[in-house]
Amino acid sequence: MANKSIEKKSVGIDIDGDGIKDFTLDLKTIVMAFAGVISLVMTYTTLKEEIKINTIEIEVAKKMPPTQTHELINEKLLNLEDMLDKYDERLDKLEDKIYKR
Q1: Domain locations in the chain?
Q2: 75 sits in which H/E element
Q3: pLDDT value of position 1
Q4: Above 70 in pLDDT, residue 43?
């Protein structure tokens, strides 16, 4: 019963000052808005760190001779092709299950 009384509590907010509630916020809405703000802040900090790491890697790559850079790119491309092949195989297996081939 305590949970129901907490959920029914709400706050009316009057924006234009006419004495009539323009909208109401309940506890659930406030918590969801707070969680959304936290999520955005965490996403921003994660992206900021990834950008920092990538700029460091770019600076290291700029200092490498072109042959090493090309070899590194080719190695990454091969790894990506292998990953795509694995996902393609998994997709084929899933399609076989779905279409019962």
Answers
A1: 1-63, 65-101
A2: helix 66-99
A3: 47
A4: yes
